Structure formats: C-alpha cells, structure tokens
Amino acid sequence: MTDPVSISSSKAEGAMRTIGEVSAELGVKPHILRYWEAQFDMVKPLKRAGGRRYYRAEDVETLRTIDRLLNKEGFTVRGARQYLAGKVVKAPPAPAPVAAPAPDVPAIDLKALRAIRDRLAKALEAA
C-alpha cells in the first residue's frame, strides 16, 4: 500500500485528487467525504464515468476546513455550514466549567458518618 504522504506529494499542487487520495490525506473515510458533499453545497467534485470523483484543489482546501471545524474545533455540521457561509464570525463557545459546590452547604460531621458506617458494618456481619 502506498503512503498517503507520498500520494499527495507526488502530484502537482493544482492536480485533481481522487476520493481515496483525499481520504488518506485528511485521515477521514471516503463515506464521510461523500456525506460532507451532501451537507456542504460548496464541495462539488467532478464526477466521471462510473461515478468516480475527482476533487479540485479548492474542493480539497474546503474539505480541510470542514475537517478542522468538525473534528478539531467542535462545530456541528450546521454550525460549520454557517461558518463557511460567513454567518458565524467566531468559534463556538467553550463548555462552561463545572460549578463549585454552593458555599451554604453544611459541614459534614465525619465522626457521625464513621459511627453510622461502623453500625452498618456490624449489622451486615450479623445478618
């Protein structure tokens, strides 16, 4: 099997690429690329006889951007579509940090909890 790096480096910069070459370059399975074609109108590979796809350089660049948005920056498909259409100007917000417990929580009486634990242990032994 050919190394994906050598595939992309053996072609000229503007050469058309097959779905297998783009798949190997991005590390994404071909069926995902076909799904992205259906979801993103701006990705329109040239289709030859038998349905074989050939991606132009601008298609490959768009797919790189889609991959980055979905798999690295956490966008949804809809959010990535809006971002590429210019309707979103920044990345989605980071998840909110986990809140600390409220300060009005009463202090735990460890001595009382240990006593309860010991009584439960004795009851289980007796059973």
Automatic annotation (TrEMBL):
Q: Domain HTH merR-type: where?
A: 16-86
InterPro entries, per database record: DNA-bd_dom_put_sf (IPR009061), MerR-type_HTH_dom (IPR000551), MerR_fam (IPR047057)
Q: Which residues form the signal peptide?
A: none
Q: Which Pfam families match?
A: MerR_1
**SUPFAM superfamilies referenced in this protein's UniProt entry, alphabetically:** Putative DNA-binding domain
**PROSITE patterns in the record:** HTH_MERR_1 (PS00552), HTH_MERR_2 (PS50937)
Q: Which UniProt keywords apply?
A: DNA-binding
Tell me a Gene Ontology molecular-function term this record carries: DNA-binding transcription factor activity
The protein here is known as: DNA-binding transcriptional MerR regulator
Lineage, opening ranks: Bacteria, Pseudomonadati, Pseudomonadota, Alphaproteobacteria, Sphingomonadales
